[in-house]
Write a structure and sequence with these properties.
Strand content: 15-25%
Shape: elongated
CATH class of the largest domain: Alpha Beta
Helix content: 40-55%
Order of helices and strands: HEHEHEHEEEHEHEHEHEEEHEHHH
Number of strands: 13
Strand order of the largest sheet: 2-1-3-13-4
Number of domains: 2
Number of helices: 12
CATH topology of the largest domain: D-Maltodextrin-Binding Protein, domain 2
Length: 340
């Protein structure tokens, strides 16, 4: 065969191969998930196991934009599932209704929102909710700037604060639980939607104080130390742990975390299969990524709710503080959800 014809043939084969690869990629089902950085490790672990089980017939893309950022995309129909570290809020319910997005609310685990300090911090191994409020409330900005202003026995050194940004469900929950009003806090702190950034910040600052999900604390516990929380109800200062979350004593910073699934998206067989896989494997995978699983019966119940298309929320668009695992299970047993 003449050289020119050989070159043309090779070009055609390369082009055909590229097109074939493109067609193959488009044939894959893509499941789009976004939202909470706290829930991310759980859903990411499920996604990896699911893709392996399906031999990559479906691609699961899991991104982070905070619970609030995730709900914005979800209610516009841009993603199939939203990770959320708090229940859907009233204005988000209205947005979903406006765009015709129905959803099933699925609690997947419990988290212990962890307050952390640098390992060299020898003075604040335990703090009260009142002390945390004095540091974080809006009135503290420009006034409460040093540790000894909280306790005269503590160092006269500047406090450096680290926390989730305003689009984060973790920020919503922390401010509601500690300050008493969601999204109400001082603003002069280092913010990030990525909990790993916050761990690094506190870990690199002897006088740092921050908050983030328990899994990120466990992953970075060679860099940060957890603070025991005294809620003033007579049980003393309590550290976050499996035991204190399960027995309900780690309050008010123990909380359920969720996924919300679009009912329209769930009509696709791969998305339905993904949610079923999530519920059937959540117990083990939640433990694997250092969160606190729900009882096995809860996952069976949530799968039943999903299959029966039980749309809406049990929280009526309101934040809920201090919910225990048992209380959550009782709520899930209600016959009626609040409509979306």
């Amino acid at each position: 065969m003449p050289q020119l014809q050989m070159i043309q043939l090779l070009k055609m084969l390369v082009l055909f191969g590229a097109l074939g690869g493109a067609f193959s990629a488009t044939a894959q089902s893509v499941i789009k998930i976004d939202g909470s950085s706290t829930v991310y490790p759980v859903t990411k672990a499920v996604a990896e196991k699911f893709q392996a089980a399906k031999k990559d017939a479906a691609v699961v893309v899991v991104d982070i934009s905070g619970s609030g950022g995730g709900f914005k995309k979800f209610c516009r129909g841009e993603i199939d599932i939203v990770n959320a570290s708090r229940p859907i809020l009233k204005h988000e319910m209205e947005d979903c209704k406006k765009f015709g997005v129905q959803y099933v609310e699925i609690p997947v685990a419990f988290d212990a929102l962890t307050v952390a300090v640098n390992p060299e911090n020898y003075w604040a191994a335990a703090m009260t909710v009142t002390e945390l409020r004095r540091i974080w409330e809006p009135a503290a900005q420009g006034k409460i700037t040093h540790w000894n202003q909280i306790n005269p026995a503590w160092p006269a050194e500047a406090i450096k604060l680290y926390g989730a940004d305003r689009d984060s469900g973790t920020y919503d929950y922390f401010t509601e639980a500690i300050v008493g009003k969601a999204k109400s806090s001082r603003t002069d702190f280092t913010k990030s939607e990525n909990d790993k950034v916050l761990v690094e910040g506190v870990g690199g600052d002897k006088y740092g104080l921050g908050f983030f999900g328990f899994a990120y604390y466990v992953e970075g516990q060679n860099k940060v130390s957890a603070v025991a929380i005294n809620n003033g109800k007579g049980k003393g200062a309590i550290l976050p742990s499996a035991e204190t979350v399960e027995d309900g004593s780690y309050q008010p910073l123990s909380r359920p975390i969720f996924i919300y699934v679009s009912m329209k998206a769930a009509e696709e067989k791969e998305i339905k299969a993904f949610v079923e896989f999530y519920m059937k494997h959540a117990l083990l995978l939640v433990k694997e990524v250092k969160f606190f699983p729900l009882p096995p019966r809860a996952y069976a119940t949530m799968l039943d709710h999903f299959n029966k298309k039980r749309v809406g929320t049990i929280f009526n668009g309101m934040p809920v503080i201090g919910l225990t695992i048992d209380e959550l299970i009782r709520r899930e047993g209600r016959l009626e959800y609040d409509n979306y």
